[in-house]
Amino acid sequence: MAARWPELALCAFAFLVGGAACKTDERPRAAAAESVRLTPRVSSTALSGSTAAKLSASDREAGVVAGRRPTRASGTEIVVAGERFDIGAPVVLWNDPGGYDAYRETPFFADQPDAPQKKRYRPGRGMWTDPSSRENEPAPGEPAPTLERLRELVDQFVLHYDVCGTSRRCFEILHDKRNLSVHFLLDLDGTLYQTLDLAETAWHARQANPRSIGIEITNLGAYPPGESDELDRAYVEDEHGVRVALDANARLLTPDFVARPIRPERVRGLANGTELEMHDLTSEQYATLARLAAGLAAIFPKIELDAPRDLAGHVRDDALSDEEFAAWHGLIGHLHITDQKQDPGPALDWEALLARARALRALEAGPIGAPRE
Ligand SMILES: [Zn+2]
Fold first, then answer.
1. The domain 12-38+98-126+142-355 is classified under which CATH number: 1.25.40.10, 3.30.420.10, 3.40.80.10, 3.40.50.10860?
2. Which residues of the chain, if any, have pLDDT below 50?
3. Among 107, 206, 226, 328, which residue has the fewest nearby CB atoms (within 10 Å)?
4. Rounded to the nearest whole angstrom, what is the distance from the C-alpha of residue 65 to the centroid of ligand 1?
5. Do the beta carbons of residue 186 and residue 285 sit within 8 Å?
6. pLDDT value at position 130?
7. What are the structural domain ranges in the chain?
8. How far is the CA of 6 from the centre of ligand 1 (A)?
9. What's the gap in Å between 210 CA and the centre of ligand 1?
């Protein structure tokens, strides 16, 4: 029986603005030492196959059904144990121009030459005997995080919302201010930023970290009805509907992008017993999230394209017991991991996401398997 992990404070941004919400919550404590970084090799495997009815035209345009494509320096591939896998969604890697590098052991944005060096992640994967110790180095004799080993260890895909407004702001808070990490950041325009090879353990969800892949989805978060002043400021109406009020420093990759929630009205619902309201993700975010989920399920056979459900078959809005958490392998929200969190919040349309991801996965003839040489 595992103890409940004491949660750290709210998201740093939420703390600053007085909002309620999430942020990754795993913090390193041990001193860092130098270690070898995995160097991605150039190879590629694409999701491929025939068409499926549930896919949108944009899914097809993204090339998901087009089969194998040449590897590009950046574009649509994620990196796992140094191998590249094409997920058919826009990806910026940590070592691409404009990428966010979680390997950096100093602040990423601020010029702080005197800042102490420390890792914000744990190289490799391994089941710690005591997860609360938060080692940031591999255990002596630990096997290398090969693709084969990762397929045995990695079985959860954890969804967070970032309460930060943009992925750029999220990385600044996560890396520079909180010394934390997450594998992916999903910006408003659907751009996916990968900050670490998935062979590494990111610090985003405590007891889920050794076995999971984490993503911070850009969204302003959820608030109790009547306490959502932050949403009033962050979302405005124009002649076409509701949009995110982006500031001049947003730096989205898509020029002049207008971010609109896929549903114009706020969505209310429960999260760990609290009624909250929030705006939905953008259609671009859902498209990328579905492609990523489908790709991860193909790469990691233990990641099932489902979310924790209650006895009636509905996706749960509360935390799992320790036993349920231990047994779960698939997509999972931060709120399912601890009753102290609400993300990804009531607006996240799990069923639509899962249906789209399953349709994408069904396109593929077999396991995404070995990367192409
Ligand atoms: Zn979270």
1. 3.40.80.10
2. 1-22, 25-55, 57, 59-73, 365-367, 369-373
3. 226
4. 32
5. yes
6. 56
7. 12-38+98-126+142-355
8. 14
9. 16
